[in-house]
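Deliverable D5.2: sample structural annotation.
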Amino acid sequence: MLWALLFTAAFAVVEALTGWWSGSLALISDAGHMVSDALSLGLGTFAVWIGNRPPTQRHSYGLQRAEVIAALLNGLLLLAVISGIVFEAIMRINTPTPVSGLPVILVAFLGLVLNGVNGWMLSRMEQGLNTRAAMIHVIGDFLGSVAALLAGIIVWWTGWMPIDPILSLVVAALMLYSTVRILTESIHVLMEGVPDTVSLHEVGEKLATIEGVSSVHDLHIWTLASGMLALSAHLELDNLASWPGVLERTLNMLSHEHGIEHVTLQPEVRQST
């Protein structure tokens, strides 16, 4: 992630200068996206570092949720970048600005290569929410470079200037879609919502069918950090003496079938009526 950050930051400067010199908004908008990507990768790198710190008296789970906060901040940063691109694109559609096509083509092609390398490096990391947020940035950059390349070719071949801001709006729309997904997932985790990969109803039914369990209540499932699911529940038993066996069967089922490792269970003796 750190190498991707360095490559992205360096190329963003090159792309922004070339976009300013050539007059290409598509290139400048892609540079703006790459700046946000560099900040995203910086936040992600910091989140990975701080998330690896051990638990403390104040943070008994450690700081692994730093990656979720980083993903949320990345989403908010992208919204600001998108707003700037859309505003400038609308202005340029109303008042077209001359664009030099050939420099745009060359730099956009280099952008495609760079984002391909960055995507390959990020794909080798564990695919948590933070890494996925960074990957979405890189994919958006790749599509932005494609749009800038097309804009440069069309301007160079036909001289039709409005294509540059039009394709900038396309890039902004793609970025908005990715941003909404990241923001939604980040907020869902911070609100301790049930993970999309798990069905609360299905887990509750399986717990209730475990031998020795008569009923389940106060069942909660949430995400501590990417890949770390937690569960708490009250299990009502026919006989408290069966608890060791019930506990072993329950932990095995949750781990093997649902990937839930952080489990807190409270046994309760069934009240006779």
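Annotation notes: The chain has two domains: 2-190, 200-269. The mean pLDDT is 80.
The annotation will be released with the project's public dataset once the embargo ends.
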